[in-house]
Amino acid sequence: MTSTSQLGELAAEWRDARLLYPLYAALSREFVIELPAHSDLEANVDAPGQDSVEQARQLFSDLDARIQVHQLRQFLQTTTLGSDEALRILLVHHLSRAEHSDSDRDKIDFLLVQYFSHCAPSRLEDADVDMAYVAQTLEGVLASVDVNVPDWLEPLDEVIQSANGCSSLNQLLTTRVLEKGRKIKTSCGQNYFLPAAMVAFTRFSFLMRRIFFRLMHQDLNAILDGLRELENLGVKTLDCRRAQFSAEEPIARLRMICQSWKVMFHAEYSSGQPVSMLVDLRAVVETALAKNAKSAAAGEAPKAWAHAAGAAATADVPDFEVSMSSPDWSETNSTGQADTDHNHSK
User: Is 262 a member of any domain?
Assistant: First the structure.
């Protein structure tokens, strides 16, 4: 016969399942993932039988195996369902697994910083984001934490310092700072799931997200300022083939694209193709401005060099490889829903 404690555990598990189901249903619809039928969850039954609870457990396990971390990230950064409580339940759900795969680690890593970002005040200073503060904020999902950083995690601060020293996204990417943080995370294996380690990585990811957003806004502002200056000089188009645009891209259209990027990057901060295009476009604009200075000294009209800017930028600026998967220091959002990341990035 089922004991009272077992009944209590099943009741608690069912409460969580009822909260999780709308999230998983919406996520499945968005990414066209088949959602197994579960009549009690669909009907939001208050007190189902044990078999129904066990069926729900298997349903979520099957979906977790099929949902990729980038899908979870995209969904939670754009859905209106990603409340503090929903994130907490998702975290508890993933942390409760008896064994954790690399995919589980990446999902938990994202969920931890997403949850922390939701709970933290928007005007939180970087200096206040210490281990004790992060541990206190995560009390709802993690057990008591020793806030002393393990020796093997001390290199995380070195990575943050290196990232803080970058003056552009191009420098952040070409110096491989992000890969260094990722290497620390993947090399620790199951030690990642120690409470102190999860707190340290949450702090690391949150601060790295802020650095990313600061550099992204700096790049966008530099591009917009450069476009304005070129337009004032009479330049109408730029050769932007390096940035995957046309050979005669109208400056007015480039300005509109930059404004749309500001909105897009609030919800997706992955270092994929859009970030590569942003970095390359800044290179095109800066090369055009440099050539203008030389042309002005020689008494030449700016239009003669504007169309060659893209090709010159390709030679002047080193290429870098960009992973099409979202970086896990996000990964960064600094915050759930589109504008949350934006608030924390200020």
Answer: yes
Q: Lowest mean pLDDT: which of 134-143, 305-314, 317-326?
A: 317-326
Q: pLDDT of 116-132, one tens digit each? A: 998 988 888 999 999 99
Q: Which residue has the tokens 């990729």?
A: 68
- In 270-298, which positions are buried (b, 16+ CB within 10 angstroms) versus exposed (e)? bbbebbbbbbbbbbbbbbbbebbeebeee
CB-CB contact of 227 with 249 (8 Å): no
By the 10 Å C-beta count (0-12 exposed, 13-18 middle, 19+ buried), 118 is classed as buried
* Residue 81 three-state SS: coil
Placement of tokens 């169309």 in the chain? 307
Q: Cα separation of 284 and 170, whole Å?
A: 13
What is the C-alpha to C-alpha distance for residues 248 and 159, in angstroms, rounded to an integer?
40
Is 259 a domain residue? yes
In-domain check, residue 83: no
Burial class (CB in 10 A: 0-12, 13-18, 19+), 309: buried
**Residue 49 is which amino acid?**
G
Q: Which one, of 185, 189, 179, lies nearest residue 101 by Cα?
A: 189
Strand spans (E) along the chain: 237-238, 249-250
Would you say residue 286 lies in a domain?
yes
Range of the domain at 245: 215-345
Q: From CA 228, how far away is CA 235, in angstroms rounded? A: 10
Q: What are the CA-CA distances from residue 110 to residues 68, 149, 270, 274, 332 (Å)?
A: 12, 20, 12, 20, 8
Q: Measure the CA–CA gap between 91 and 292, rounded to whole angstroms.
A: 53
Kindly report the pTM of this predicted structure: 0.78
- Please list the alpha-helical segments (H only) found in 233-334: 251-267, 273-298, 303-306, 309-316
Pairwise CA distance, residues 287 & 158, whole Å:
32
Number of domains in the chain: 1
